[in-house]
Inverse folding.
């Protein structure tokens, strides 16, 4: 066939002749055989089968992740939108695709653009799991030494970096949180469009298909012209730009460049979540201290007020330790009294309830999540008083350590007390009870917690117990935020989309601000109510139909 | 006759054992899943990636202390042991090192004899073809060509593995100079491979070309202004991604001098 370019090896014979002429007898038959053996073992015999798993003993991708990687490589030819719902492992899919191309020698360099806050996580994941030597982009970067690098979009679009990057030829460009490219008039968009890229993956959890214009812009990065020109596209499908996609034909077109897994499509949907809110009341002494704390801060616009109250709802220890460190001049005069009153409190009402609950579970394993290290310490000690065995998971532990703790928990401890979700790759599906000892204000964090056990391999229904103390800040969070948003009923993917549309980065920040700026309970209730009803409205207007592309 | 060579799983510990022995690194311990070696200075420099240390040692006129490597095929949580497996960067590093240093050889069949023995020169090539369309695959061949009479032998490495070879010629042996020049011998091998390739089916290339044309057509439609850099880059990328290619690549090879009995012995 004449259309095939053919390249011959012109270096071998000169090298051989040169060696023989100069009689440089470095010939080593052993090493020669080993080179051959290695090539033999790493040969890629097929166009189609994925090779990547043989090279990644540590990764056991789920079926849908593997399918996604195959689809992108075999059917989409390496240019695709990966749009799985949050928590289904888009990074794993991207890693599998990138590594597969590397093994086949099709990708020798890559640029990954992500929000600054995700840089370290990406580096860690690609290095530890995929053995891809990804490094952080910086000034005077040495392209040849480190051909795989990562930067934030904001960094990359600065004029000097932009120029440098657009002059390079990338075999692969990956963009995380790609909904930031939805507007074609931005610097972000222009940068990505200007990059020379062979393969390209756009990762987003936001269901971009709700907006015609957005989807047009994203697809036009991957396959310019696939949806026509902007003019022809708008004319054909709709005059109004920001309208959801109703056209079946268009949906089909988009499916050819996009992979989207949803929780309900994965087998995970068979497992039911049972959510129980466990209402508790502070003892009189506790309530008094709580009131006292609240009054002390009344009128003082302290950023920490909400935090102290939240901590007291978790444990004496958490609140004591953080109050002890205060540097706020308004508080310092009252600090000793407050500290004394906290120190003289009896065991926390939640801790007592915890013992009850664990005893009721009759030896079944349970994970207890708390936001605070101090609470974690306290609980470990307190459980030990009742002969309940436990291990602790905390932030900053390396992967090996976490795996070790996981093993201990699986084999002979009843309780795991964790301050964080444990991170990717830690699977706790042998356990199906979670106690949220205190609730995070960010529903995504909660989803991550639950996600540790609500995953492949979970054979039981899951029970989630949320501890909340009446007449405290916790009551507001549960009744005004969690109940309203029906957080536990698996709408996270959707919530994510709504928040993106409202341009809210984090519910946690939003709620925290509301709490801090508000002095009366009534006012707070109104604010939270407004907030949740806006979300609720959006929720209904997005609806399931458009969401399902 | 099927002359293509298929995948073979790599036996990692024996592979490393042989490698470090060949590199004169003392083996401190080895069992089925672990190997512990004392690196030589040369190997420390090649594998341990600490140029500043060696620079400092040289500058201060010291001897320097090469490191030890403790490799294991079992996944463990221990900072002293390095987990080595099929995809670990360490293996790839060793392969790259061998490719650079040892991809051409000149070797002689070892003869235990007290009579004059003639050795024929053979050209050995371990030959890799890669086919790249929208995907990529490889075929691997090991061919030997007798530089006196032009005999071609497939699976040459498998045959050579059955005899003993050495960089220096055995006593009482002599070599005859090639009648076929190395260059011409190589052309002949290239030709044989090319003929082999021509018999194959080209659906992969056709399919890839079709994708290429479609995407170029779309891009032509999308970019109204064909003079922009964005347009040029897009077209280049599409071609890089889909233009079918076949590359010939000799992984390693050399000239080996073999006795007349070689073919019989290794049949």
């Amino acid at each position: 066939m004449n259309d095939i370019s053919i390249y011959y090896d012109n270096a071998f014979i000169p090298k051989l002749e040169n060696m023989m002429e100069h009689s440089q007898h470095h010939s080593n038959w052993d090493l020669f055989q080993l080179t051959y053996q290695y090539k033999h073992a790493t040969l890629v015999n097929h166009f189609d089968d994925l090779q990547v798993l043989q090279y990644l003993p540590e990764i056991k991708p789920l079926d849908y992740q593997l399918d996604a990687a195959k689809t992108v490589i075999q059917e989409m030819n390496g240019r695709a939108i990966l749009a799985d719902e949050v928590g289904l492992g888009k990074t794993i899919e991207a890693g599998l695709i990138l590594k597969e191309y590397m093994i086949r020698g099709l990708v020798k360099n890559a640029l990954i653009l992500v929000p600054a806050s995700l840089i370290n996580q990406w580096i860690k994941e690609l290095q530890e799991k995929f053995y891809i030597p990804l490094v952080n982009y910086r000034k005077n970067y040495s392209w040849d030494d480190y051909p795989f690098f990562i930067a934030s979009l904001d960094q990359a679009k600065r004029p000097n970096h932009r120029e440098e990057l657009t002059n390079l030829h990338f075999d692969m460009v990956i963009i995380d949180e790609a909904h930031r490219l939805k507007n074609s008039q931005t610097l972000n968009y222009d940068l990505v469009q200007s990059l020379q890229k062979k393969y390209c993956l756009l990762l987003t959890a936001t269901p971009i298909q709700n907006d015609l214009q957005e989807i047009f812009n994203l697809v036009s990065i991957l396959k310019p012209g696939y949806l026509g020109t902007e003019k022809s596209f708008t004319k054909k499908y709709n005059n109004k730009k920001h309208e959801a996609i109703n056209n079946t034909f268009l949906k089909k077109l988009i499916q050819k460049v996009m992979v989207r897994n949803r929780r309900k499509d994965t087998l995970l949907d068979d497992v039911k979540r049972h959510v129980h809110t466990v209402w508790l009341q502070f003892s009189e002494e506790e309530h008094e201290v709580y009131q006292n704390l609240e009054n002390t801060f009344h009128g003082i616009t302290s950023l920490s007020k909400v935090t102290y109250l939240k901590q007291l709802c978790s444990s004496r220890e958490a609140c004591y330790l953080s109050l002890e460190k205060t540097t706020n001049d308004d508080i310092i005069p009252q600090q000793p009294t407050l500290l004394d009153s906290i120190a003289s409190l009896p065991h926390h009402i939640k801790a007592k309830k915890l013992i009850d609950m664990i005893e009721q579970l009759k030896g079944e394993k349970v994970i207890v999540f708390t936001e605070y290290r101090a609470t974690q310490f306290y609980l470990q000690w307190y459980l030990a008083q009742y002969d309940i065995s436990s291990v602790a998971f905390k932030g900053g532990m390396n992967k090996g350590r976490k795996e070790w703790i996981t093993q201990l928990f699986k084999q002979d401890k009843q309780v795991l007390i964790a301050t964080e979700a444990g991170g990717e790759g830690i699977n706790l599906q042998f356990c199906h009870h979670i106690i949220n000892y205190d609730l995070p204000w960010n529903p995504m964090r909660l989803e991550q917690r639950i996600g540790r056990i609500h995953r492949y391999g979970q054979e039981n229904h899951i029970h989630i117990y949320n501890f909340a103390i009446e007449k405290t800040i916790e009551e507001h969070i549960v009744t005004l935020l969690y109940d309203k948003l029906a957080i536990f009923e698996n709408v996270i993917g959707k919530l994510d989309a709504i928040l993106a549309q409202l341009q809210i980065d984090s519910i946690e920040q939003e709620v925290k601000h509301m709490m801090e700026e508000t002095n009366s309970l009534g006012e707070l209730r109104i604010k939270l109510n407004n907030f949740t009803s806006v979300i609720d409205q959006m929720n209904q207007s997005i609806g399931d139909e458009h969401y399902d592309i | 006759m099927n002359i293509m060579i298929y995948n073979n799983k790599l036996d990692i510990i024996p592979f490393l054992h042989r490698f470090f022995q060949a590199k004169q690194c003392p083996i401190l311990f080895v069992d089925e899943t672990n190997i512990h070696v004392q690196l030589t200075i040369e190997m420390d420099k090649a594998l341990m990636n600490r140029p500043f240390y060696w620079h400092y040692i040289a500058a201060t006129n010291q001897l320097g202390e090469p490191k030890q490597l403790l490799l294991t095929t079992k996944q463990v949580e221990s900072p002293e042991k390095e987990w080595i497996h099929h995809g670990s960067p360490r293996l790839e590093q060793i392969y790259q090192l061998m490719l650079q240093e040892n991809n051409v050889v000149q070797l002689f069949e070892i003869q235990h004899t007290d009579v004059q023995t003639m050795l024929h020169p053979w050209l050995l090539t371990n030959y890799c073809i890669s086919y790249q369309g929208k995907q990529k695959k490889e075929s691997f061949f090991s061919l030997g060509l007798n530089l006196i009479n032009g005999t071609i032998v497939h699976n040459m490495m498998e045959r050579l593995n059955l005899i003993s070879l050495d960089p220096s010629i055995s006593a009482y042996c002599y070599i005859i100079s090639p009648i076929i020049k190395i260059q011409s011998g190589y052309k002949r091998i290239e030709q044989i491979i090319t003929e082999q390739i021509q018999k194959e089916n080209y659906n992969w290339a056709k399919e890839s070309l079709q994708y290429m044309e479609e995407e170029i057509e779309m891009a032509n439609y999308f970019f109204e202004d064909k003079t922009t850099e964005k347009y040029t880059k897009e077209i280049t990328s599409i071609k890089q991604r889909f233009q079918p290619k076949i590359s010939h690549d000799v992984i390693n090879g050399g000239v080996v001098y073999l006795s007349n009995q070689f073919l019989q012995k290794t049949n």
